[in-house]
Design goal:
Layout: H1 10-31, H2 35-39, E1 43-47, H3 53-59, E2 64-69, E3 84-86, H4 89-95, E4 100-106, H5 114-125, E5 128-139, H6 143-156, H7 173-182, E6 186-196, E7 201-205, E8 211-217
Helix pairs in contact: 4-5
Amino acid sequence: MDTYNSKYYEPLEQMMAIRHQYMSKILRDHSGQDIYEFFKNKKILDLGCGTGKFLNNYHGMGAECSGIDIENNFKIKNKINFKLINIEANKFLKNCKKKFDVIFLFEFLEHLKEQDKYQLFENLTKNLNKNAYIFISTLNKNLLSKYLAIDIAENLLKLLPKKTHDFNLFLSPSKLQSISQKYNLNLMDIEGMQYNPIFKSFKLSKFDLVNYFGTLKY
């Protein structure tokens, strides 16, 4: 994959604000705390963290942060205040002795084979504190999501490198629910997000047929 300065990382940068907005909404509604109160002194693990730029925001709120990514050729654009570990997620989790209060799985699950998804959730439950949250964003699995994420974004507009996505790995909310139940995780919320290509921004939406957020609680 190209380096961090590539145009291909722009869509991920554009998602940062909507991720924060979504988590703020969930935490306010379910914990009664604003996001700044909630993250203070929490232990966070970000799987597929890239450069760590998004995670660094929560370090600034007083959280203890760990970032994992299989890529090792990123050019770090901003100074970060924690260590990024270059390792495959399941390998890290199998050997991790630490427990976390929050896990980020943003734009991550759609890159794992089905058996690896199950293995991931099995490993995650061994590394979660009681009442931990898992925040997810991923791609639904249907013909519309294939058309927009692969045919349009990759092949036509070239917003992403070709073969970034494999439709067979996309994850429907019903499948997420099934995996979650197997490992005693409560799927609290599903909410769609829509992209505005003119303003290059995302918004929360009831339309979840393409990109969607999910929240799990342990």
